[in-house]
Amino acid sequence: MPNRVWHLADIDTPRGQVAVMLVRSGWQCDYAEVATVLRKFGRSRQIVLTTSRIEQEELNSAGRVVIPLASVAKLDAQGLWLERETLIEHYLRGVNQARKLLLHPTLKSDQQLWFELGPDNAWLRVNSRTVRLWGKQRLFVASIARAHIRNQPHRRLADAVNDAGYEGDVRSLHQICSRRDFREVIGIADGFVWIRDDVQ
């Protein structure tokens, strides 16, 4: 959309491709028209950066995370720089808010999660899939679950590894558990981990 909407990039993620769009906001901006353009763009998952700090409700949609550009970028003599970790954090938070959640039995009635962690962290149930946890795996998953309960849609891998008491340089889920079922319920990307909500 000339002088209003730009397609900046496509990002490959463990969950598929995400389009990064930029919307130039302003007093004369017809956000309903912009939303139509974004919908017709042909990507079901989008990060929409806006030049406005004010959230525009018309742009909200399933699969679309709207982020003010000023909260994830800085301008200096070298140009405009996106702060990657901040962008990832905003994106994951937006995805988390859009999830279809299941009631978690250990939370207050107004809190919801899509997973259940068993007594003594002995198992993790996501939808109908139950995964047994052993040793430090229990502490690792409990650390991630606590982040979700605090409404943080992800946990830094290094922090979860530290909470579980692992020693050495742990950079992959395979180092924590070689079982495939474990790696199918725990997501990992760009140094962050989370309990997946798309498990069948």
Explain the overall architecture.
- There is one protein chain.
- By secondary structure, the chain is of the alpha+beta class.
- Helix content is 26%, strand content 28%.
- It has helices at residues 31-40, 84-98, 136-149, 157-164, 180-185, and strands at 5-13, 16-23, 46-50, 64-68, 73-76, 79-82, 115-117, 123-126, 129-132, 155-156, 186-189, 192-195.
- The protein has a 4-stranded mixed β-sheet with strand order 1-2-3-4.
- The protein is elongated and about 60 Å long.
- The two termini are 38 Å apart.
Give a topology summary.
Layout: E1 5-13, E2 16-23, H1 31-40, E3 46-50, E4 64-68, E5 73-76, E6 79-82, H2 84-98, E7 115-117, E8 123-126, E9 129-132, H3 136-149, E10 155-156, H4 157-164, H5 180-185, E11 186-189, E12 192-195
Parallel strand pairs: 2-3, 3-4
Antiparallel strand pairs: 1-2, 5-6, 7-8, 8-9, 10-12, 11-12
Can you tag this structure with a few keywords?
single chain; about 200 residues; alpha+beta; four-stranded mixed sheet; three-stranded antiparallel sheet; 5 helices; 12 strands; about 30% strand
**Order of strands in the sheet with the most strands?**
1-2-3-4
- Average of the residue pLDDT scores: 81
Radius of gyration: 19 Å
The biggest sheet, with number of strands, parallel, antiparallel or mixed sense and barrel status, is: 4 strands, mixed
**How much of the residues is beta strand, in percent?**
25-35%
Q: How far apart are the termini?
A: 38 Å
